[in-house]
Recover the amino acids of this structure.
């Protein structure tokens, strides 16, 4: 992504898309199907049905930016929550997803609650 471009939220679109879609089709999908603002400080990420490609769309100052990554041998661990159209994550988590980590297995330690020390 463009250095200095503020990204406050990352939206992973759960359903696979037709990868012939470019900026116009993807920005319309964000606005019309998701009801989100494609001009917001957000990154909208899409995958194909094989989960070996991702496209990321974002607005930077005066125009849309679109980039794509294609894996040669592996697949992205794409979220599969059937109840939601998107899954949100942080920019750091998106970086982990691109590197091959499964975000659904990113579970923190359990929170422990104690009443006393002794």
């Amino acid at each position: 992504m463009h250095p200095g471009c503020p990204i406050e939220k990352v939206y992973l679109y759960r359903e696979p898309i037709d990868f012939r879609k470019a900026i116009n089709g993807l920005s319309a999908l964000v606005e019309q199907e998701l009801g989100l603002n494609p001009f917001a400080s957000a990154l909208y990420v899409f995958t194909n049905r094989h989960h070996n490609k991702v496209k990321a769309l974002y607005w930077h100052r005066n125009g849309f930016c679109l980039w794509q990554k294609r894996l040669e041998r592996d697949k992205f661990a794409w979220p599969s929550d059937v109840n939601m159209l998107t899954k949100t994550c942080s920019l750091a988590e998106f970086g982990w997803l691109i590197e091959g980590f499964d975000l659904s297995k990113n579970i923190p330690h359990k929170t422990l609650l104690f009443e006393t020390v002794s």
Q: What stands out?
A: Strands lie at 9-13, 42-47, 53-60, 63-70, 86-89. Helices lie at 23-33, 91-99. The chain has one domain: 9-105.
